[in-house]
Amino acid sequence: MNYHKIKYKYWNIGVSEMNRKTKKAVIGKKMGKSKLRQLLKSVEIVKNGKCAGIKPYTFCPKCGCTHTRSTNNMASYPELWVKIYCARCGFLVEKADNSPYVHALECADYNYEIN
Fold first, then answer.
1. In whole angstroms, how far apart are CA 74 and each of 14, 71, 84, 95, 99?
2. Using the 8-state DSSP alphabet, how is residue 50 labeled?
3. What torsion, rounded to 10 degrees, do the Cα atoms 101, 107, 108, 111 define?
4. Which H or E run contains 54?
5. Rounded distance, CA 55 to CA 57, Å?
6. What are the pLDDT digits (tens) for 6-47?
7. Radius of gyration (Cα) for the chain, nearest Å?
8. How does pLDDT run across 63-99, given as a tens digit for each residue?
């Protein structure tokens, strides 16, 4: 199957409802613990104004996955309330509640938990 067809077909259902072969085709292989530790050590938080940039790239601090699923805006227009979860493990990766987005990698002191 074509990757884009698979991704479109399973876009609106949760990862837990996919079989293992399809999940690997959409999300990819799981990162090893040693590679994840090395990647966490190499993270740099660059503050620029209100928001922060993360180098080398954003990922889930628990499993290393770069794919996410979002709740979209759960409030009416002037308000902002968004939660973004990891597509593989369901960990809360990013959050905004009438403030700039906060990524879990910015909260290393609190075991990557967003308050």
1. 19, 7, 12, 12, 14
2. T
3. -120
4. strand 51-55
5. 5
6. 555 555 555 556 777 877 787 888 899 999 999 999 999 998
7. 15
8. 999 988 888 888 888 899 999 999 888 899 999 999 8
Indicate the domain borders of the chain: 1-28, 31-110
User: With contact defined as beta carbons under 8 Å apart, do 100 and 50 qualify?
Assistant: yes
pTM of the model: 0.78
- Residues 10, 89, 31, 41, Cα dihedral to 10°: 130
Non-local (6+) Cβ contacts of 11 within 8 A are none
**Beta strand 68-70 with 51-55: parallel, antiparallel or unpaired?**
unpaired
Compute the distance between CA of residue 49 and CA of residue 35 in angstroms, rounded to an integer: 31
Are residues 49 and 100 in contact, defined by beta-carbon separation less than 8 angstroms?
no
| Among candidate residues 98, 37, 93, the one with its CA nearest the CA of residue 60 | 93
80 residue type, one letter: L
